[in-house]
Amino acid sequence: MEFLKSLREALATHEDFLFHTSIYLFCMLGPAFFLWFASGRNLLDFLGIGQWIKSSDGQKEDTSKIDAELLKSCIQDLRMGNELSLAFRQLDHIPLCIATSRGADTITKLDLTECNICDLSNLCYFPALELLVLDKNGLSSISTCPVLPKLHTLWCNHNSISSLGSFLGDVARKFPNIYYLSLMRNPVNPDGGVLGGLGIIGRGGRGGLGDNSDSDEDEELEGEEGAKVKKAEEAYTKYRLAVLSRLPHVRVLDDEDVTPEEHKQAQEEGEYSIKKAQDASLNRDEDEHWKWPKGYTPPSHWLRDVEKMALIRDVQKDLDNCGEDFRSLAKKSAWEANKRLVSRYLEASLWQPILNGLPVATAILNTIRFRATYPMPIRDKALLEKGLTGGPFIVSTTRSRQGWPILYLLFHNQKCMDAKINSVCLLYSMERAIQSLDPQNQEIVLFIDTKGFGYANVPSMAILSEMSEILAKHMPRRLGVVFVVNVSYVVNWVYDMVSIAMSEVTRQKFRFISSNKDEMKKIIGDYIDLNELPAEYGGLAPRADTNFSVHDYMASDSYLSNDPIIANKLYS
Known about the structure:
Layout: H1 2-39, H2 43-46, E1 52-54, E2 60-62, H3 68-80, E3 83-85, H4 96-99, E4 109-111, E5 131-133, E6 153-155, H5 164-174, E7 180-182, H6 194-197, H7 223-246, E8 252-253, E9 256-257, H8 260-269, H9 272-282, H10 300-304, H11 306-320, H12 326-332, H13 339-348, E10 354-355, E11 358-359, H14 360-373, H15 381-388, E12 393-399, E13 405-410, H16 419-435, E14 444-449, H17 461-474, E15 479-485, H18 489-498, H19 504-507, E16 510-512, H20 517-524, H21 550-555, H22 566-569
Helix pairs in contact: 7-8, 7-9, 11-13, 11-14, 12-14, 13-14, 15-16, 16-17
């Protein structure tokens, strides 16, 4: 009995403790619970331990780097309406803590202007989105964007969209119900370049055209400005037709209503209009003198790079103001002064205004003058026969895996030791190889066999220096790779001497290989198919100089035949 009495007293004391503890906890935690519930925040975030949260792909997101005021403002917007603005915030993606907040699935308008955003994948949390603003973000594509079936309006102005076909394909797949699209101030949009520079564009697109019909600005432009405007308008028309051919439901493009005539013409031309628009956009800011050569398409990242394009225009301007008739001089030497020529020299200078200690425009002028002194094209058959006898310079009929012509320099076959003749033959051989290039390629493979090099029979420094100077100053960006085989200590010494004049870009092209055929096969095989590589270098093909006849070699070259189409083949 005493035991039961003691047990009842202990339980009574325990129940009293539990009761008082519960009252205490409720008084302390009740207000905190109420504040958490009213805030609508995640419990872990409310308690201060939610700094790291998991995103949908399992990666972590550091919410501590997100401005607290931004979070507060966005969550308030999500609670109070169907519009959300993240404009002018430095966000490379939409924070998951915002995207997954209550109310995100009801947002119909989202503004991401000038956020430097590059990842659009978290838009999947906004399924009701109808209007999306992506202006001024440097976007080159929208490939990371999810499908948004309700989206009908997309603003993507002032970005870096350069591939029209790819972009329109993404829009068609991801926004099947789009009817309002704005792509002003993008590389794919020809409008805004010439027209904007002349102050013709109004509120957007071509909105300024025709809006002020009574003003002086609408007077007909004449001369060079008029030609630029006409060309820009033609390019813009092609661009609009290209967009409408892929997105037939679009009713407003670049703040301008689409006419029934445009829709009809776009559907008649179909996909072909996209190619026409792309071709037009490449030359949207060009005049009759400075164009990309026919058949050549510059890399899209060049067109997106404002600094590179500005450098190209600066060099063009320097050449136009040089005071020489450089175009006529270039044509006489089977050269064409175009944008590809300028960009090639800028590539060699690593996109700097100075090449080999000279302004790029001056370097180009020096090459034009240099070519005129030979003169180019080289058709002195007697001189070439003397320098090519034995086969020291052979342009192979085969190509590398990259499609580059292969020029063999076989010094052990050299019969003529005259530096001037050898430099002319090297220049002729380089031009012969370049002649066979397709427009999109610009480089060749230089294959140098130094077999037998020694102090007693090494070519004179005059010959080597002349060759090095030609390659460094007048053939920039022409070497895809240089193989130097059968290397000896003498070769290394010679290279140290002649490489002083080379740029770092050129020096990185060299591959030095010993006389070991397995080593040759391993290194050269990445560039030249073993079935095309001569057996003496580890391949399966005959020697490059097998049955070489200087007369047959020269007779097989249209370069010596006064062929008028040669100048069109040389995309220099």
